[in-house]
Amino acid sequence: EISPEEVLASRVICEPLHLFMLCSPNEGAAAVVLTRDDLAGAATAVPITLAGAVLRSHLPGSVLSESTPLSGLTDDSVPSPTTLAARAAFEEAGVGPQDLHVAECQDTDAARELISYEEIGLCEPGGSAELLASGATALGGRLPVNPSGGLLSKGEPLGASALGQVVELVRQLRGDCGPRQVDGAQVALSHTVGRGANAGVVILTR
Q: Cβ distance 105 to 113 under 8 Å?
């Protein structure tokens, strides 16, 4: 655990972000086993459904570079890859942001998580600070985000990040998360971005 005071005491990296507001590079691996509904049977105590899985890249436009944050575009009217992926995943799963019970969002830094709230549709554009301050995204709130601690708590294992989120959410939907469990979770969303130029959104249901 780390206190807000310790975070703010760490050195400034890029105003207003301090060192402890950024996750560290890490190594790791994740795996899932998928099966058809008719084959799951008694072997799966609590079956979880992969309701939607979408990957989107940025749209053509004035791209600064592959490493440009967010959509990679200078035109803010063009939807970001996260927004494109989230809309498509919600449509594929037949749910909307209002139906979510828990989410694991990209939080390579503290600001990225707030931006994700808006791009996914958890709040209106410009509403992320208010959503956070309301306590809605905290454990016990209306829509807990990153109850695992996110990448900020464990580092980013790069290629394993997205699938690691899925593993965490399967555990949430099965009620296997102990002190970080979101009570009654039935619908979950994971979100990751790749250098701002692409984004993936997965929706799981119980």
A: yes
